[in-house]
């Protein structure tokens, strides 16, 4: 096999090995590429900053473990902004397995900022029946969750829930979306009750959410790892998204390099075959 | 004196609420009334503490507070009302100093259920048109007229793939994806499964169907059984080869990859609804050199499947599979009706785009009538 | 009868759902919701079928000591451990995902989550190998696809601009190479002239195109995604919707019955 033939038929295990190295190096050595935050991220950041201190914010973690690499750093970064501005955080989810992930993030960040459960944040948990839950929250949030938190402790005893009846008392709803729940936030919470919404999503889901942004139904769409990295940048706390973005860039370059190699090999071997 | 005081109260503070419109909520099952209002332009909203939506159920009785809202609200929908009963409303504005002012009382409004969802008339027209075309072609098919359908490479390859796997002495693997039995893609996948099962029975090959959903598993068992029966080899059918794997997306992908690596199937069919796991399965299948035929309605997964498999049925090609494979004239008639609908849609899109251009250029909105007609059905 | 009753059920249920789309008046308003609830209840019970199938299938493998039986044993053990651990932990702490639940702290966060993330991450390896294999300049269409894909990949990451120029020039050189090969291979003089003109045109276009893309990479990426990509996607989706109606009608009318025996 000559060089061109081997270029057109690189063993996939070699591709995997090189990709593995390229993907891990930025994490190990914390390589960082300078980026300018995208306008949507800045809009979301400024909007949250414009809310008065002590405002209540709903975090809806509508994702599970497989989308964690993209959405968890975004959630963590936003929580840092919320707690640094002393906002009250209400955690819920429309995906049953999203609750423990959001809970993990909120506990970690709350510890950093010395925030207390029940006073500064609460985990409302998961309630089945997507649209019905959103509509019901428009009327009475505590009642939607049966007036208890995820461990059946009464909400009326918690200072964090004081004065919260429905969406009117919520500064902003921030949904983290790996599926189609974001559409429902816009269609139900906003269209029916005028709730203010920011949606963070995986890169795949983001294009589906932009029409709501254009229609003015949501404030901003935070799309994928890039948005998470931008947010980390804005809250001055670099984490996995920032280094992940470097990895993503390097991996894209690597794939293009492989494609070019493959094509050189392909064209050369085709010529040989023809002659 | 009294008249003077009353006059003073009313003249000093007119209600900040103007233009209160109360109407029956359209296109619903009844029981709902919508209120819309504006604030007087010179009203100082910062002085308002909150507003109350007041409902009068019966003239002469005390009004009931239907809801308390912030003074920024301009719309409210009252629910859980009795159909056929008249309701009147007014809005009570509470000021920070503890006083309040009521707006004018609305005329009575009766909530009612509607028999036709007016926003969906466009969809109904399309459906009726489709139905008419369908009946026309079904009649034609019954008369024995031959309906033809273009060759679909991926479906033509099904028989060859089964044959090749048999020659290699390897089993067949059929993956129905993550859909439930109510997904059209899964149903279309089952139709292809039946054909594959028939061929597998003919060639005495094994067919493995690991399932994501228990209902789909039950349907797949029936389908494979029926395929073996129609091929005249019910004795070869082994129910244990159609089994439930897991209801977890990546667990399913991992399980399928394991089956591919251990059992090395000669042909792999990926037919159904797929998400991020599509490429994980298809690349593993490629790595063992299996011939792969994919088909899905998940538009975002199509590029991956096209890149990694030998044949891909793109969306509706997959839906046409059962008609294509069975050549049943009734099924072909539905495809024929579908094709005509598509031509009508293309025509509508072209005419609509032209009319919108004219509307944009002339500034005359009446040219947008096609858009207006169809926009109602957008929800 | 075994066939007719299910067909009748499909017909009635399907027709009711279609009617309920257009008629908001009771009793049609709750029809879809009611039928969906029935489906959820029925499918809940079918999980027993699923578990039965899973356990029997794997138990059978172990019993017969068939090839790879340790895998089957792993499946059964994992199933039992997850189930028992989850129930015990949930009962002891009040909620399966309580902060002090061992199921959450050990099993969920440190076994389940990493396993999920790993499977998802494998995707990037497979994308690389699939892209390497699929993106070959086999034809004009394939070449266009290849160039577009490269622009998108560069446009979506930081520093994409820096890599853009060499990549584009390599692409241009590769195409020129292919065209030259074609010129050499062809015997007709007119075709040859055509190819030479194409080559000149390409080189002329390449310079301003590269310049333009260098300044507007992110805008160009968005344009490709919003216009040509979206147009193709909508075309497929339109076909899917119409095809979906055709399949649904076939099922409602009992023409399509391959899903039942």
Q: What does the model show?
A:
Chain A is built from eleven helices and six strands. With 275 residues, chain A is an alpha/beta fold. A six-stranded parallel beta sheet of chain A has the order 3-2-1-4-5-6, with helices on both faces. In chain A, α8 links the parallel β4 and β5. The radius of gyration of chain A is 22 Å and the shape is elongated. The model of chain A has no long low-confidence stretch (mean pLDDT 91). With 379 residues, chain B is of the alpha/beta class. In chain B, α4 links the parallel β8 and β9. Chain B has twelve helices and 13 strands. In chain B, α4 runs parallel beside α5 and α6 packs parallel to α7. The radius of gyration of chain B is 32 Å and the shape is elongated. Chain B starts with a helix and ends with a helix. Chain C has two domains: 121 residues, no CATH class; 117 residues, no CATH class. Chain C is extended, with a radius of gyration of 29 Å. Chain C starts with a helix and ends in a 9-residue tail after the last helix.
Classify the helix fraction of chain B into a percent range: 40-55%
How many individual β-strands of chain C?
0
- Shape annotation of chain B: elongated
Number of helices of chain C: 7
Instruction: List the secondary-structure elements of chain C in sequence, H or E.
Output: HHHHHHH
Low-confidence stretches of chain B: none
Mean residue pLDDT of chain C: 88
Distance between the termini of chain B: 58 Å
Taking all Cα atoms into account, the compactness measure Rg of chain C is 29 Å
Instruction: State the total count of DSSP E strands of chain B.
Output: 13
CATH fold annotation of the largest domain in chain B:
Rossmann fold
Task: Please give a quick description of this structure.
The complex is a heterotrimer of chains A (275), B (379) and C (261). Chain B has 379 residues and is α/β, with parallel strands linked by helices.
Which helices and strands occur, and which strands form pairs?
The complex is a heterotrimer of chains A (275), B (379) and C (261).
Chain A: H1 3-8, H2 12-28, H3 39-50, E1 56-62, H4 68-84, E2 88-93, H5 99-113, E3 121-126, H6 130-139, H7 141-144, E4 170-177, H8 181-193, E5 197-201, H9 206-214, E6 220-223, H10 224-234, H11 240-274
Parallel strand pairs in A: 1-2, 1-4, 2-3, 4-5, 5-6
Helix pairs in contact in A: 2-11, 3-10, 4-5, 4-10, 6-8, 10-11
Chain B: H1 2-12, E1 17-24, E2 33-39, E3 48-56, E4 64-69, E5 75-78, E6 88-95, E7 100-102, H2 121-142, H3 153-168, E8 172-177, H4 184-203, E9 207-211, H5 214-230, E10 242-244, H6 249-263, E11 267-273, H7 278-287, E12 291-296, H8 302-308, E13 311-314, H9 316-319, H10 321-326, H11 329-362, H12 369-375
Parallel strand pairs in B: 8-9, 8-11, 9-10, 11-12, 12-13
Antiparallel strand pairs in B: 1-2, 2-5, 3-4, 3-6, 6-7
Chain C: H1 4-22, H2 31-63, H3 69-93, H4 102-134, H5 140-155, H6 160-185, H7 189-252
């Amino acid at each position: 096999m000559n060089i061109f033939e081997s270029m057109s038929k690189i063993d996939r295990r070699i591709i995997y090995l090189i990709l593995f190295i390229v993907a891990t190096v930025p994490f190990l050595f914390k390589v960082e590429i300078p980026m300018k935050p995208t306008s949507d991220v800045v809009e979301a950041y400024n909007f949250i900053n414009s809310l008065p201190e002590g405002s209540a914010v709903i975090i809806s973690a509508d994702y599970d473990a497989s989308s964690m690499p993209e959405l968890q750093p975004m959630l963590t970064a936003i929580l840092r902004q919320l707690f640094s501005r002393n906002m009250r955080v209400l955690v819920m989810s429309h995906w049953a397995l999203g609750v423990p992930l959001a809970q993990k993030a909120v506990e970690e960040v709350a510890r950093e900022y010395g925030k207390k459960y029940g006073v500064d944040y609460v985990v409302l948990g998961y309630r089945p029946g997507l649209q019905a839950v959103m509509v019901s929250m428009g009327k009475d949030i505590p009642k939607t969750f049966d007036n208890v938190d995820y461990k059946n402790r009464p909400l009326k005893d918690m200072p964090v829930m004081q004065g919260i009846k429905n969406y009117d008392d919520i500064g902003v709803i921030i949904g983290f979306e790996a599926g189609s729940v974001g559409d429902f936030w816009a269609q139900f919470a906003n269209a029916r009750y005028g709730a203010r919404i920011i949606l963070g999503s995986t890169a795949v889901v983001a294009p589906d959410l932009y029409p709501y942004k254009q229609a003015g139904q949501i404030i901003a769409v935070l799309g994928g790892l890039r948005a998470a990295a931008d947010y980390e940048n804005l809250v001055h706390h670099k984490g996995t998204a920032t280094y992940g973005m470097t990895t993503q860039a390097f991996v894209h370059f690597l794939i293009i390099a492989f494609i070019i190699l493959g094509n050189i090999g392909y064209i050369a071997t085709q010529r040989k075959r023809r002659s | 004196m009294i008249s003077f005081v009353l006059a003073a109260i009313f003249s000093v503070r007119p209600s900040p609420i103007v233009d209160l419109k109360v109407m029956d909520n359209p296109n619903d099952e009844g029981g709902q009334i919508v209120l819309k209002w504006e604030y007087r332009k010179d009203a100082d909203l910062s002085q308002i503490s909150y507003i109350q939506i007041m409902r009068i159920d019966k003239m002469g009785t005390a009004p009931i507070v239907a809801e308390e809202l912030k003074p920024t609200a301009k719309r409210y929908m009252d629910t859980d009302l009795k159909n056929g009963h008249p309701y009147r409303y007014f809005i009570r504005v509470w000021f920070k100093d503890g006083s309040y002012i009521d707006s004018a009382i609305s005329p009575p409004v009766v909530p009612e259920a509607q028999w036709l969802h007016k926003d969906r008339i466009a969809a109904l027209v399309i459906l009726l048109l489709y139905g008419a075309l369908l009946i026309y072609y079904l009649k034609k098919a019954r008369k024995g007229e031959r309906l033809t359908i273009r060759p679909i490479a991926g479906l033509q390859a099904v028989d060859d793939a089964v044959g090749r796997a048999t020659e290699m002495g390897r089993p067949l693997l059929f993956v129905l994806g993550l859909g439930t039995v109510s997904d059209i893609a899964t149903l279309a996948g089952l139709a292809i499964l039946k054909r594959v099962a028939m061929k597998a029975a003919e060639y005495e090959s094994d067919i493995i169907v690991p399932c994501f959903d228990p209902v789909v598993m039950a349907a797949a068992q029936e389908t494979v059984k029926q395929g073996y029966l129609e091929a005249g080899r019910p004795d070869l059918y082994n129910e244990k080869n159609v089994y439930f794997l897991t209801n977890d997306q990546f667990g399913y992908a991992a399980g399928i990859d394991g089956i591919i690596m251990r059992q090395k199937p000669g042909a792999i069919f990926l037919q159904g609804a797929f998400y991020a796991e599509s490429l994980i399965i298809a690349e593993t299948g490629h790595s063992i050199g299996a011939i792969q035929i994919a088909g899905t309605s998940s538009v975002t997964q199509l590029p991956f499947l096209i890149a990694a498999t030998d044949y891909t049925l793109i969306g509706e090609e997959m839906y046409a599979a059962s008609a294509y494979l069975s050549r049943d004239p009734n099924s072909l008639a539905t495809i024929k009706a579908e094709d005509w609908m598509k031509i009508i849609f293309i025509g509508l899109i072209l005419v609509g785009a032209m009319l919108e251009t004219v509307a944009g250029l002339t500034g005359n909105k009446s040219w947008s009538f096609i858009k207006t007609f169809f926009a109602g059905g957008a929800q | 009868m075994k066939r007719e009753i299910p067909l009748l059920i499909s017909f009635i249920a399907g027709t009711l759902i279609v009617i309920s789309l257009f008629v908001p008046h009771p009793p049609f308003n709750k029809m879809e919701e009611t039928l969906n609830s029935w489906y959820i209840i029925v499918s809940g019970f079918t999980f027993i079928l699923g578990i039965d199938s899973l356990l029997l299938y794997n138990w059978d493998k172990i019993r017969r000591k068939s090839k790879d039986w340790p895998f089957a044993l792993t499946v059964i053990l994992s199933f039992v451990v997850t189930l028992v651990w989850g129930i015990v932990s949930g009962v002891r702490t009040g909620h399966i995902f309580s902060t002090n639940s061992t199921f959450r702290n050990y099993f969920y966060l440190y076994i389940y989550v990493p396993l999920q993330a790993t499977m998802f991450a494998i995707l990037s390896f497979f994308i690389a190998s699939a892209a390497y294999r699929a993106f070959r300049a086999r034809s004009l269409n394939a070449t266009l696809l290849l160039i577009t894909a490269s622009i998108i990949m560069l446009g979506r990451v930081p520093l994409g601009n820096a890599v853009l120029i060499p990549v584009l020039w390599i692409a241009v050189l590769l195409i020129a190479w292919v065209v030259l090969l074609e010129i050499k291979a062809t015997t007709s003089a007119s075709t040859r002239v055509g190819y030479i003109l194409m080559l000149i045109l390409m080189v002329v276009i390449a310079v301003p195109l590269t310049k333009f893309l260098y300044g507007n990479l992110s805008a160009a990426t968005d344009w490709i995604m919003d216009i040509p990509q979206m147009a193709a996607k909508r075309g497929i989706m339109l076909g899917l919707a119409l095809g979906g109606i055709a399949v649904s009608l076939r099922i409602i009318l009992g023409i399509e019955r391959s899903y039942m025996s």
